[in-house]
Amino acid sequence: MKKLIALSALTFASTIFAADVAYSPPVGGFTTVAAANSDTLVSPTLAREAAWRGTVSGATSSEITISNEAWTAGQFAPGAETYYIRLLSGSLAGQYFVVTGNTTNAVTVDAAGFDLSQITAGDSAEVVPFWTLGTLYPANQVGTAFIASANPLNVQTQLLFFDGDSEGINRASSAIYYFYNGAWRKAGASTALSFDNTIVFPDTYFIHRNKDASTTLVYVGRVQPGALGTVLEARSERNDNFVALSFPVDVTLNDSGLAAAITPSANPLLVQDQLLVFSSEGAGYNRAASAIYYYYNGAWRKAGSPATTDFGGDVLTAGSGFIIRKAANGVTSTWSYNTGF
After folding, report:
1. Rounded CA separation 57/90 (Å)
2. For the chain, how big is the Rg over CA atoms in Å?
3. What is the model's pLDDT at position 149?
4. pTM of the predicted model, to two decimals?
5. Does the CA dihedral 155-162-118-64 come out positive or negative?
6. Minimum mean pLDDT among 33-47, 103-117, 165-179, 327-341: which range?
7. Of 242, 241, 229, which Cα lies nearest the Cα of 95?
8. Cα 14 from chain centroid?
9. How much of the chain, in percent, has pLDDT values that exceed 70?
10. What does the DSSP 8-state code read for residue 93?
11. Quick check: helix, strand or coil at residue 71?
12. pLDDT tens-digit profile of 302-340?
């Protein structure tokens, strides 16, 4: 879950478009192959269809007011769906906030530590339903996107999630889900409980763990509009941030914009923030990072290589994830990747 400390494959909601906003995001599909006997990092590469898109008229500490709309009170309140509002322009472009309720012309949100006064009249925004386990991995994709478990004591495909509110490095997963008897279940919970409505946040990855069979996940949706924003948290000790590349095209380190969001190293022997990348090649569980990068002397460098070599052309793989490891007592920052749409 995002937090700022310092500073049917898919079920679409009916779409309400504000008359003053002209916007047509590209729509398509994206495929992620998860190997057998292996962990695959997965990000929600495409977005679900927006339930509303329009213009903001202002904001308070926990409420964002919308221009020229007449919603039904409570239509975006958490229920069968949970929604977020993402800013598409302005000083907080790319950042999103979980919607906790709405009136006829405003949404109440979890501000996640942000100063919402930075949102000003005229900023554009959209309200979007989160992906959930049941919409990203629907029951009709059993056998293709994932393997169901015939017995909860011998689970097959597992989805491992990480708690963004925890801290430290090399953290274990905070929740593990598996598909059994027609629904997603949670390890350690009653098998009578469905976790199909569990939220998949757009700015963080999870691990898809297969056993003996490979699977193929096919997304249908739209390219994330504008910028993609996330928070990179620093703590008193080194801290891992599990970050998504929710975009269907590979991105080079130079084009990612991450250099502006991490603390550069003044000395290659005393590295500050690090970027840990994981290869999709090969097999195995709990694999170590395939490459560790840091920013030094105006360029991306790679651990184990000469500090004079520029690795800015190396890529972050579409639809994958990576770790930003913040240095101890470092600076919490935000990262926005402009998708160009």
Report:
1. 12
2. 20
3. 98
4. 0.90
5. positive
6. 327-341
7. 229
8. 23
9. 91
10. T
11. coil
12. 999 999 999 999 999 999 999 999 999 999 999 999 886
Give the list of residues 6+ apart from residue 281 with CB closer than 8 angstroms, or none: none
Task: Give the closest residue to 155 by CA, choosing from 133, 182, 135, 185.
Answer: 185
CA–CA gap between residue 148 and residue 143 (Å, rounded): 7
Q: Are 36 and 211 in contact (CB under 8 A)?
A: yes
Report the distance separating Cα 86 and Cα 211, nearest Å.
36
CA angle 275, 278, 283 (to 5 degrees): 165
Distance between CA atoms of 314 and 301, rounded to whole angstroms? 10
Q: What CATH class has 49-129?
A: mainly beta
Residue 336 and residue 264 in contact, taking contact as beta carbons nearer than 8 Å: no
* Interval 252-283: pLDDT, tens: 999 999 999 999 999 999 999 999 999 988 78
106-124 tens-digit pLDDT: 999 999 999 999 999 999 9
How many whole angstroms separate alpha carbon 245 and alpha carbon 42?
A: 9
Give the three-state DSSP class for 95: coil
CA distance 171 to 190: 25
> DSSP readout, 269-282?
TB--SEEEE--SSS
> In the chain, which residues fall in CATH 2.40.10?
49-129
The burial of 161, by beta-carbon neighbours within 10 Å (0-12 exposed, 13-18 middle, 19 or more buried), is given as buried
Q: How far apart are the first and last CA of the chain?
A: 25
- Lookup result for tokens 């002397």: 297
